[in-house]
């Protein structure tokens, strides 16, 4: 019987679950896959050989915690390991019981440094998903160093410059993993969302992992370019002091984000991984503005995009009309659609599935008997 893979999925945003589903659908049906996640309602369609096991959240309190233990410091090898949390104990017990019963060939971890280290402690090989950010701390390095392989859900040209040769050698890069890169024709998309063909459309897109951009600076931007139609999708933080021009509208969450991206003349987004892959695949003029994330993930991602020449980057939304004019002009003048689309690999899920299967085969292969020197060869008595 084929030994299963396990897959831990962080439930913030949508990118982790979408990557997992893409890989699950690309793995051979003979490979059982057990997904561990705090939510089971965030996944696209999964094949029959996949099951989902619900875990308690590792970071959302339920009221049963013991805050009196918070005075004990967290060691540098861990990030989120509060004491006295029954939910964390139950989650770890579920994982370790499955490790013992299932004897998995691999655990893919997307993402938790603690669970990656738990797999290693339990003698289970793991693949750690790599994200951008300042992750040179002891916790991340222990998870990376102990991994049988690393999986980066972006193109190799977006690697951070400080990553070592040894780090890169064990990494499978997969630009576009888990992202549907198909887009409708511009005219068709505009008809669907109610935008005239001749209008200049500036799209502001916020992903599902944060709180979105603030309203006030968007109002400044829209007033800077009054001839354009500005549409926002996703979250926007409302400011009481924002002065709203008539050319900006807020549509909130939509089910057809691809139509809006295809229709846009210029896109303004944060730098979450899924959002980045969507805009790169579309090849649109792009103003990329990182949001706050742990370990400065989006700031390091933005730096990688700028270094690759595939986005105009600002550390925050421009705060003046002059700043907005300069940023929008730069995004349009420096647009390199071919370079953007080159960041999306061909059939990334298939490549990752093959890499995982090859890695599992290598991990399960018996060691060849060593060649002994003649002096150590057994001799008849």
UniProtKB/TrEMBL annotation:
Domain Glycosyl transferase family 28 C-terminal: 242-313
Gene Ontology MF term list: hexosyltransferase activity
InterPro entries to which the protein is assigned, alphabetical: Glyco_trans_28_C
KW Transferase (keyword) present: yes
Pfam family, one: Glyco_tran_28_C
UniProt keyword list: Transferase
Presence of keyword Transferase: yes
Name of protein: Putative glycosyltransferase
């Amino acid at each position: 019987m084929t030994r299963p893979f396990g897959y831990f999925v962080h439930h913030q945003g949508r990118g982790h679950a979408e990557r997992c589903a893409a890989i699950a659908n690309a793995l051979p049906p003979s490979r059982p896959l057990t997904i561990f996640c705090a939510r089971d309602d965030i996944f696209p369609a999964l094949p029959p050989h996949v099951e989902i096991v619900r875990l308690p959240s590792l970071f959302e309190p339920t009221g049963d915690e013991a805050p009196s233990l918070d005075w004990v410091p967290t060691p540098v090898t861990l990030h989120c390991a509060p004491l006295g949390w029954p939910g964390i104990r139950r989650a770890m017990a579920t994982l370790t019981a499955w490790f013992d019963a299932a004897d998995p060939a691999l655990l893919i971890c997307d993402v938790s440094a603690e669970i990656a280290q738990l797999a290693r402690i339990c003698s289970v090989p793991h693949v750690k998903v790599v994200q951008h950010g300042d992750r040179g701390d002891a916790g991340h390095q222990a998870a990376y160093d102990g991994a049988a392989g690393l999986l980066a859900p972006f193109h190799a040209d977006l690697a951070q410059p400080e990553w070592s040769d040894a780090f890169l050698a064990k990494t499978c890069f997969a630009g576009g993993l888990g992202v549907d890169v198909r887009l409708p024709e511009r005219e068709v998309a505009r008809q669907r969302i109610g935008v005239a063909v001749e209008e200049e459309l500036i799209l502001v897109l916020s992903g599902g992992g944060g709180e979105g951009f603030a309203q006030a600076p968007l109002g400044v931007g829209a007033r800077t370019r009054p001839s354009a139609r500005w549409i926002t999708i996703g979250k926007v933080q409302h400011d009481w002091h924002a002065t709203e021009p008539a050319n900006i509208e807020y549509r909130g969450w939509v089910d057809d984000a691809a139509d809006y991206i295809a229709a846009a003349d210029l896109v303004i987004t944060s730098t979450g991984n899924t959002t980045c892959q969507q805009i790169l695949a579309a090849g649109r003029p792009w103003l990329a503005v990182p949001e706050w994330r742990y370990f400065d993930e989006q700031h390091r991602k933005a730096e990688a995009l700028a270094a690759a020449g595939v986005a105009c980057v600002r550390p925050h939304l421009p705060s003046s009309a002059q700043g907005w004019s300069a940023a929008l002009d730069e995004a349009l003048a420096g647009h390199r659609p071919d370079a953007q689309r080159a960041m999306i690999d061909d059939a990334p899920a298939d490549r990752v599935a093959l890499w995982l299967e090859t890695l599992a085969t290598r991990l399960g292969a018996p060691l060849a008997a060593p060649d002994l020197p003649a002096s150590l060869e057994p001799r008849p008595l």
